Amino acid sequence: MISILHIITQRLSRTMAFALPHLLCFLVFLQQLPIFTTAQNISLGTSLTAKPGNSSFWASPSGEFAFGFQEIGNHGFLLAIWFNKIAERTIVWSANGNSLVQKGSRVQLTSEGKIMLNDAASGKQTLIADSTANEVAYAAMLDTGNFVLANKNSANLWQSFDHPTNTILPTQTLYQGTTLFAPYTASNYSKGRFMFTLEAGGNLLLYTTHFPLDTANAAYWSSETEGTGFQVVFNQSGSIFLTSRNGSILTVVVNNTVPLPGFYRRTTIDYDGVLRYYIYPKSSNSSEGVWQMAWSTLSFIPSNICVNISYYKGGGACGFNSLCRNDQKPSCQCPNGYVFVDPDDVMRGCKQNFRPQSCDEVPSMEEFYFEEMQNTDWKESEYEKYTPVTEDWCRQACLADCFCALANFRNGDCWLKGMPLRNGRIDPSSGVKALIKIRRDNSTLKLPHSPHSRTKRNSTLLLVGSVLLSSSGFLNFLLVLITYLVVSGTYRRRPNMIQPYTVLPGMNLICFSYEELNKATIGFKEELGRGAFGTVFRGVLVSEKCVAVKRLNNMVKESELEFKAELSAIGRTNHRNLVQLLGFCNEGQHRILVYEFMSNGSLASFLFGKSRPNWYRRKEIALGTARGLLYLHEECSNQIIHCDIKPQNILLDDSFTARISDFGLAKLLKTDQTRTTTGIRGTKGYVAPEWFKNMPITTKVDVYSYGILLLEIIFCRKYFEAEAENEQQMILADWAYDCYAEKKLQLLLENDDEAMHDIDKMEKYVMIALWCIQEDPSLRPTAKKLALMLEGTLQVSVPPDPSSFTSSIV
């Protein structure tokens, strides 16, 4: 049968009359035909023992593949399948990459037909393969590279092809839900930082992972076959393609260009995240010509992983603070002034090789310099942008900012970027210059004085004085008197030592007394704002840290334990786009929350003030708010529905980063606490329609409110303006949809030249907002899809008419 397939394949390769789709469809048919090989059956009860020399294995009939133990350096043994007839015993499947076993360990095909791994060091037993049919008669290593458990009729009950690790082989098929994980390093076969998966929805994707977890983080390549992809076929002629359920070809992943018989083939997701298609000549003088006896790469995906990965979470292609350079294959390096965290694992990223700038010091060019690197950028690391400015101004801005690790400069645009730096790449097409801030000489720097150093210096002076004055008894007496006066004076000037605040176990929240907060706010004197949840006051703690102190009103009458449980859920949140809860007071009738202070106030005052904020900053605020929602809805330990997304609850920190506030407080309020209708939570104008329809309340209520907020951010206009020129313009959502449908969005951008120059991006944001405010919650995007659309990773389709926007306003 193999020779027949070989002849057919050779003839087809010479025939140019067939178009590629017809050829591949025919090869799909050939793929389904049985391949007859004589397997060397492994009887029940047979076992292998791990020992040096890689000599403990079960081979396939031809000897081309083997199943058994491979020794991995001095670290232990890996139960694996490998190419057995080439010098490089290349592993294509493994069972215990996350937990190597030691010398003397055994793998056994038990009498029940199970493959069990027994670790000689720990005595631990691990089930590797099992069949629910309980009809296993034997095991076999096949010449395809597939290890199987079979019944007496030679039907496969379990096969390694259905449980791939990082490699697929000819004749292997991947089904929906199948995932390949890149190894951690070239010699460490535990699950690494990348994955290749055919999702249940039909999309074939390459992802970064939430390492060390093996869940998907960000996609950096996609077949874009959502809803249609069914299986990935690696056919016998060497082509790889994605088919639909009816067998039609959707995407050709690899097109065969080299005849099959003279080469071994494999497709592997390597530790660097690249999916590569490899070939290896079976002999040095094959009929196809003389080839180097080594694995050669015929094709790979993506073409440049350094620029493909650009996400606000994770370390990119090479780890935090590092740079990815694509010279035939990606390589990782550290910028000047930085070194690898672990030289044996360069993908862990880099760290500064000097003492970072302290916010307590006044820097100068005598202490720091800027290393220039051309065409070098760290995507998604900026926290501020200035334009138009000069390069020298950009350097000075970064020097004066203790949070700035480097600045990127291009054509008058200056981006300040802080640690950790993400998605670093060297890309000749970018035209971006990196200005990396480095301390000149760490060894000669004087550290800022501390109270301890001053005490030590005073003690030294007193000691010297004692020696000089010890020649006279009178002077000794005088010395004692002076010493007493100096020391007692020092302690009198020192403020009273405050006992450390009580931090509740497991909550990381400070428990303040009412007296402490009353003193910090000078009797709750300086009011910062009022909202549905309470009143906010400015406060200064004993440590001189400025805070926002919120006195809650209309609290639910619940036990102290329940109150602390709710606070614990809020206190465990930690995200760049959330206002951090620092502590609370739960004393008598006083329920008070203490937050970090946001120096630039609320988004409401920012958007609706006298001057219009620049378009770039508005886009950053919109994206930051969406990322904060994504964290609350999907990424924190307990899902939190905010219930009151509006400009007053989006605060801006020193760098104008959007920070969501008042999240998680809905459960702490009375059920009738509202500014609109009884039983409804939220603020008039931002409330989702389902609140009025007795429908289940889900995270989609926040998405609706965000849609209204996004329109306000785009147009710097409130959701409702009674003094509008005409009735059609009163409700922003109505007017925005009408202008969008009539392709007249410029009517909403009066005197906003910056947004007009970016009209395509602005129109996309309007489309996203219209999706968010659909009356049917199921039509609204999730927070994750919302963030992806704003980032440009996910395409935005044409939104339908949201129907009605007036229900939450009247």
From TrEMBL:
It is an enzyme of class 2 (transferase). The keyword Membrane applies. Its EC number is 2.7.11.1. Residues 33-162 form the Bulb-type lectin domain. Residues 1-39 form the signal peptide. The keyword Secreted does not apply. InterPro entries: Bulb-type_lectin_dom, Bulb-type_lectin_dom_sf, G-type_lectin_kinases/EP1-like, Kinase-like_dom_sf, Prot_kinase_dom, Protein_kinase_ATP_BS, Ser/Thr_kinase_AS, SRK-like_kinase. CDD domains: PAN_AP_plant. This is Receptor-like serine/threonine-protein kinase.
